[in-house]
Structure formats: structure tokens, C-alpha cells
Protein 1
Amino acid sequence: MTGFEGASCAEIPQSVADVVFFSSAPRDRHYAKRICGGCPVRDACLRMALDAERGASIYERHGVFGGTVPSERLRMQRESV
């Protein structure tokens, strides 16, 4: 899913990952965040999402990356300024 070698999400069928990691349902997001929890490339995935979303509004952010949802990443970027 992320393109990172060894990512935990790579073990999940693509059709399932597409739904779970890009759902707005709390249950799906919680499941996606649990998958990210022990991922060996979590930090790199989060950095990639933060870089890609720099300057984007909340409406331009999607999915669970690095164990975070769009609102969490937006907050992280606002706090780092």
C-alpha cells in the first residue's frame, strides 16, 4: 500500500487495505491504526504523508498513514510551526 519495503499494510490484500485505510468509519480507522502500530516503516510513512500534505487543508488530506488520521497530521504540522 505505501510502497515501503516491509510495511505491515503490505500483508493485507489491496482491496481490504483500500477500504480500511481510506474509510471515514471510526472502526475502520481504529483497525488501520492498529496495523500501523507495530509497523517497521511507520515513521517513514508518516514523514511521507506530512511532506505530501504540507500546506494542504483538512479537505485535501485522506487516509491513515503512519498511524495517524488527517486531522492528527494537520495538528502535528500546525504545532511544528
Note: The longest helix spans residues 26-37.
Protein 2
Amino acid sequence: MPNRAPTAVRHASTRTVTTVVLVTIVAIFTLRVWGITTWFWMLDDQIRDWAIALHPLRELPLVGPPTHVAGYTIGPAFYWILWLIRVVIGPWFDNLPHAGGIGQALLQSLADGLLLAAVWRRTGSVWTALAVTILVATAAYDLCLAPLVWNPVMGSTLAKMALALVVLGWFRTSALRVALTAALAWSAVQAYTGAIYVAVSVFAALVVDPLAATATPGWARARRNLALVALAVALLQVPYVAHQVLNRFSDSAMGAVTDSVGRILAGRAQPELAKSWNGYTTAVAFIQVSPWVVPAATWLLVACGAIVAVRYRHDSALLCMTLLPQLMAIAGYAFFLAGLDNYYYLSLMPPAVLTVVLGVTAVGPKRLSEVVAIAMAVGAVLIVPSRVRLAATMHRMPEYGALVRASRTMVARGQPLRGIETEFALPPTSNSEFVYRILGGQFDERSEWVGVISAHGGVTYRRVEGP
């Protein structure tokens, strides 16, 4: 594919492009964080990770969060970025945990803006770019997860940014940009292991693009890019190596994954390709199609994949960012013998949506394709309200607002407390005292008073006796 921008994009003024991108970022960000101070999802993972982000930089872990399948992610990118969010955004919100959600939502929205600009430049159609971006960013599951302090969200965000940089062709102009794109992709893996399929696809695009970008294959640039990818990964893994040295190499990172692969390679189990295919198609339907049920959605994705493979067969970088991550995920998760959750596939949604939109708009002459793109963009906007309503029913904790209001009141009053209780039931892994401690409240075991929080955020005190 030519390195120059398509004619339509070259003719669009910088002001126009900037305005469209900024308006999109602001609109999506607003949808994600509206009312977050009243419903932020503050469970065990959020409490643990935000508490870590409250520490000084020198005290941050050298690896990522623990996973539910044993082990932990293989680098500290998530904690280091979350710490930066706490430093930059936290003070505006008293360092309360919803500041982390706002920061992650902002980062995710900036990634969407980058995706919009990249697809616009690549296709020359603002309508195609808007259709892709709106469909990805306003999916109900994405909307409800984006403002959480949660490493799978961070991983999908960084993966989306790396994908957008490849689609934009940003990496083509210098070795430094190649290294930074590779580093961003690998940081996504450090944040969440499930981003590996997009990351490897980004690496593939960086290496094969020079071979197809010119009349004479650029083998020297391809070898250089491969070396830069390896260097970026190696440097980013220095903290992990340091962690292993400190633990005498006795700390396994991804035990459940390596166990599954080991069992298959040893012949004690077989790859579960059918389960992997069902897991992927179920995730696409849940994340992108809900709240509707469209049985033909899977076959639409398959058909569009075939169209994209033919239509863009000479654009290796674009194929790497659309088809390759999906195919790798289906093959890769076949070697994972545990259950497959929908959020495993968050980073695969931009490739899936890009495949569908490019496939649908590739049929017919250019003028018809633009009409179809306009229809898809308008349709994407029209279904946003239904998606927003569904998002409001998932992963929200309406008790959070009461905890914040009451904690502020108790800290302001300065009454020594032995503990805090609530008149309402919190989710099992939440904590009624976390917000109070962040705001500066302390507990005194000698106090005879316990603070009691009402459902509306009011405070009463209950006297307790004895130690």
C-alpha cells in the first residue's frame, strides 16, 4: 500500500480532522464516565490495584496483577501506567479509586480517537472510520468495562493503540517509531496476557510491511524492524527478569497456560479447536451484537473476512491488523484447556469490527461503498442508546456513591472510629472502609464508636463495648 494518505484525507484540512477526532473522543469519554462517582465498580481487584497505585513509584511491583488462572502477567506496565494516572488525575478527585476509572476511560477514548484517525487516513473515508470507531467504542460491554481499574481493559486499550499506529502507517518513517510501536504492543501483553494475539500481529506487520511497501522488497528494513521488535521486548522484560532474580527463579508467571500447552504437547490432551471457535464467536456476539441476537452475525464476520482477504491481499499490514489476530486467537485458545470468558477477547474487537466494516464497504463501486459507509455510521449512532442502557445494567456498584459521601462526612467530623458498617449489603469482595482510609480517616481500636452508613450516604454512630 502506498505510504501517502489517500486523496480524500489529503484534501481534508487538519482542522477538520482534528475537530472530528476531538468531538468523538469527548463524546465517547462522556458516555463512559457519566455518573461514575455514584456507581464505580469497587471490588477486590480494583481495591488491590488502586491501593498499589497509591504507593510511591519505587514500591511498585516488577510484575503485573495476579490472574484468576494462577500466576501473574509478565511485566509491570499496568501498575506503572495506573500509577501515572493516579499522579496526574488522582489529585483532582482526592485520589479516590474512581479517579483510576476516569483515567482508564480517558486512555481508552484517546485510543478510539487514534483508531478513527488511522482508519480515516487508510481508507480515505471519514464515514468508514466513524462506523468502525463508534461500533467498537459504544459496545455495551466495552462501555461498562472502560471506566474500571482493571488490567484486561488496560491491555485492550494499549493493543488498540498499537493496532491504530500500524493502520496509520506511523511506524514507517523511522526506526524509533518502529521500536515505540513494538513497545506499546508488548506493554499490552504485560497489562493483560490475552492481548498477545494483537501484539504478535503488530510485530508481524512491522516486519512484513517493508517487504510489500516498495517495488523492491526491503529485506534490510525487515531485518532491522525484527531486531527492533526483539530489542523492545527484551528491554521491557528487564523488570520481570529482576523479579525472578529476587525470587531465585522460583515464581511461575503463567502456570495454568504453560500447563495446558504442556499437556497437549505431551499427548495427554488434545487442542480444543471447536471450543475455541465457539468461545470467540460467543464473545463477538456478546460484546458487539448485544442487546440483540443475530444468528447470522458469525457468518457475516466469516464472509467479510473472505472479502477482506481478497480485496486487501496486497496490503499485508492491514491484513495483519484484521484477519491475523482473529485467526491466531482461535488457534491459540485451542491450546488453553480451561474455560473461556468473554473479556478474554476485548482486544480482538477492533480487528473484528474493522473486518466487517471493510468487508461490507468493499462490495460494489466506490460511490456505492461510500453510501454504505454512511449508512453504517448512521446506524452505529442510532443503536448507541440501546447499548448505553444495557451497559448501565452491568458491572456497576450503586452503593459506591453512598460510601464516598458518608466517608467524607466521617472524616470531616473527626470522630474516632473502631470500624465502619453499612445498613445495606455490599458485594462480597468490596470494602466499606477503603474510601475512608484514602480520605485520611484512621481507626482506633480503643474507640467505642462504629460508623454506620445508610443507603443514601448518611452517617449514624453505634456504640460498642469491650475490646
Note: The first strand starts at residue 419 and ends at 422.
